[in-house]
Automatic annotation (TrEMBL):
Its cofactor is FMN. Residues 185-198 have a biased composition (Basic and acidic residues). Coiled coil: none annotated. Residues 176-198 are annotated as: Disordered. Belongs to the nitroreductase family. Its EC number is 1.-.-.-. It holds the Pfam family Nitroreductase. This is Putative NAD(P)H nitroreductase.
């Protein structure tokens, strides 16, 4: 009987990897660096964009800059919500301390013929490409938004002045050991319809 363990086509092996991707919360060192980080960022730069505007921008936050960034998030939370400032500030500091690396993803909006939503979607597509690349290289990550992604002060801190803005943050690192069950794939039938002419 022939050995079929290595008979799966390479293109299907790549799809197996893609279909196994999921958001990973608990992360640990190491975060991607060097050639791996370059590949992840390059994957983001291959996202589709209408009009070849290339609106996406990535800001990598790592190493010693992470703690300084955590303090900036704490300051922003204090301005946003003075009543809950202490708890929120500690929450954001703790989040940054347990995250090996962040990639802030934003869109530099260019007024003109291409609708703003399409430029934002291009930045979103870049984020998804990078999440897929993280997974395929053996790392883990998660796309995070929340109040910081929509805070004008945090946006300015990372170089995004309105109408340009963040679409979120990608956490990046090595998946930590976990006993949590792997989420089931969504039911295709619940999300896909086929349009038919009447």
């Amino acid at each position: 009987m022939p050995d079929i363990t290595h008979a799966r086509e390479p293109r299907l092996l790549a799809l197996d990897q893609l279909l196994a991707r999921r958001s990973v919360g608990p992360l640990q060192e190491p975060a991607p660096q060097g050639a791996d980080l370059d590949l992840i960022l390059d994957a983001g730069l291959r996202a589709p964009d209408h009009g070849r505007l290339k609106p996406w921008r990535f800001v990598v936050i790592r190493g010693d800059a992470m703690l300084a960034y955590g303090e900036k998030l704490a300051e922003a939370a204090t301005v946003r919500d003075p009543v809950n400032a202490a708890a929120l500030a500690e929450r954001y500091r703790a989040w940054v301390r347990r995250t090996p690396m962040l990639i802030a993803v934003g869109a530099v909006i260019k007024p003109g013929n291409i609708p703003e939503i399409e430029q934002l979607l291009a930045a979103g597509a870049a984020a998804m490409n990078m999440l897929n690349a993280l997974h395929m290289l053996g790392y883990g990550g998660m796309w995070v938004t929340g109040p910081n992604a929509y805070d004008a002060n945090v946006n300015r801190l990372l170089g995004f002045e309105a109408p340009s803005r963040l679409v979120g943050f990608l956490t990046a690192g090595t998946p930590a050991p976990s006993t949590a069950p792997v989420p089931a794939r969504p039911d295709r039938a619940a999300h896909v319809a086929e349009w038919k002419a009447e």
